[in-house]
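Record type: ASSEMBLY
Status: queued
Input:
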Amino acid sequence: MRLAGLRARRKLRERAIGGLLFAAGATSILTTAGIVVVLLVESASFFRHVSIVEFLTGTTWTPLFRPQHFGVLPLVAGSFLVALIASVVALPLGLGAAIYLNEYAPNRARSILKPTLEILAGVPSVVYGYFALTFMTPILQHLVPGLSMFNALSAGIVVGIMILPLVASLSEDAMRAVPRALSEGSYALGATRWETALRVVTPAALSGIVASFILAISRAVGETMAVVLAAGMTPRLTLDPRESIETMTAYIVQVSLGDTQFGSIEYQSIFAVGLSLFAVTLVMNIFGRWFLKRFRQVYA
Amino acid sequence: MRVLGQPDPRLRRRRRIGRLFHGLCFAATAVGVVFLLVLLIDVMIDGVAWLTPTFFTEFPSRIPARAGIKSALYGTVWLMGLVALVTFPLGVAAAIWLEEYAGKNWIQTVIQTNIANLAGVPSIVYGILGLAVFVRWMGAATGGRSVISGALTLSLLVLPTLIIAAQEAIRAVPSSIREASYGLGATKWQTVRHHVLPNALPGILTGTILALSRAIGETAPLIMIGALTFIAFVPDGPRDAFTALSIQIYNWASRPQDDFRHLAAAAILVLLLLLLSMNGLAIWLRNKYRKDW
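Status: finished
Output:
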């Protein structure tokens, strides 16, 4: 009898613990739901004042002074200009680093370089912003005539350095997954090392490399503090990297720095911009991981 | 005509390209390392002279020579403690559920995909969430723009990273351990509690420290919830207003005067030192308790 009671209690305890653990796992769903609900609800009140068409197609963004215009394109363009400059820096360098780490680096060099890249990825973005503002920009001003104090160029370059480790490590993982037999086959046919690296290993790892590019660009679009400090807060529809611009992220920070009233249209506008940012990065992340899965070569 | 013993000129060309390519790939890797060195040296030149004892014991001030990071340091320590308290149990429990309890079913797939997606959400979006939920909706409980609001926001931000790291640590425990435990009649929870968790703990701790070090460098979400104010006191409880190192750095760096920028550099040195020692601790833990099964 006592044994049966013990068993029942034990079973109950097991079920309760399972339930608690599940609840912990489910908090992540709550987080996502929270993000989506908050962004949608507050954006909805924003779109009662501003038409979605004006928001998505307008080319002037002046919510903080009159006359107010709410065309988000200058902010989107700012984000993508920075991401573009960052990609020009990070994609070739990251790919080169991945090839070096995978093909050439002796073990000792690897054991130094990999942690160094990890540290580079761990430096807070506000530190990159400080560096861009106080070191890169003054130097670049000697090289690039007409470069303003705040500019997309030096922000883009430091963001590029920030996302470089991500490109390098994801691409290297993809190259590592290419079976040795493939590169050995290439050597056996008389190919040199660089031919093997560029024409056999890189194409074989292409899905992983492209995915690393997409994820890194998405990271660059969402990057905030480096851009706030170095790229300025001047919403402008331009492709000129020498000028001060404003990204979606920088605008959100700008509004929360001032003393905007809860419930005002300026306050609501950060949710509309946040929703755009969330949508853009989410689509890129999903696409990146889909790409990784869809085009992954399965080597048996 | 080729002369025997003389390499084919085309092969020579291919080898030359090879050397060039090797050099280029090395240079690409070196850029990151050199950049890191230049950054560190630049910050040191700007900031070392400002790292005086009073820098640690004074509150922020309008006069650069009298400004310090006391309130910022306390704020960062408060944040770290609260984030650890929230994320460690929650993250480990979620990881245990995903690895040990959930079968391969749709709920598990949905939660796993969701966690991967959350890890890619820009940190400022978490700031928006924190502003709406913790500062406004739950303002009565959290005290509004308070340490606990900041800590909860950062917790949501680093949870996905922690869960993924903890899952990897749990997955690395070989199934023979679990089977031996079941074989002796242990229940699922007894197996997890007494065998899986102790073996996965070093990996989980490493992941937790790395997640925390990500949290203390974050600036944007804290600005969003409104922590960028002049704070000349130390928080007494979780519902008090606060500032943090990263915010103080932004505040000083965004001012045009050189002296404030030097203060920012000095604060960056403190932050980087903190981050490096946390990373060092994580690596040491990883190596000390590494097990090859």
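Annotation: Chain A has a mean pLDDT of 92.
Annotation: DSSP finds twelve helices and no strands in chain A.
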